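Hey, resending since the last one bounced:
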Amino acid sequence: MERVAMDTTFLIDLQNERRGRGRARGATDFLRSHPATEFLLPMVALGKYLEGFDDPSSPQAQALVEGLQLLPVTRAVATLYAQRARTLRGKGQLPGTNDLWIACTASEAGLPIVTRNTAHFRRVEGLEVVTYEAPSPADNG
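The structure tokens again:
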């Protein structure tokens, strides 16, 4: 895996793990186990991530995302979004709007998406979903 798009869940897990909040979900381990992988950030995922901060322009908010290459929402992404949304709505399987934009951005760029939110992303035809998850404490003994 040379390049991968990040979902918001991955960013939030990384942030929480770095701050020692909640249980480790495996995002940091995933990052460490893929040192040669380039991680790219869909623009919509950036917006969702920054929404979690009182001041999205603060150093605290920007620390994790500064320097990441952003994947823009282009005309091709919008066309793919329209096609996938119509298909999934017809099946009664439409994921959250932002997740579908993120999925279509990654798909149009030809990138897999790294996420724990597999239920939403696996619905999107043509998108490779890469997951991570640390074992729960109950699994360790």
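The chain has a mean pLDDT of 92.

Sorry for the duplicate.
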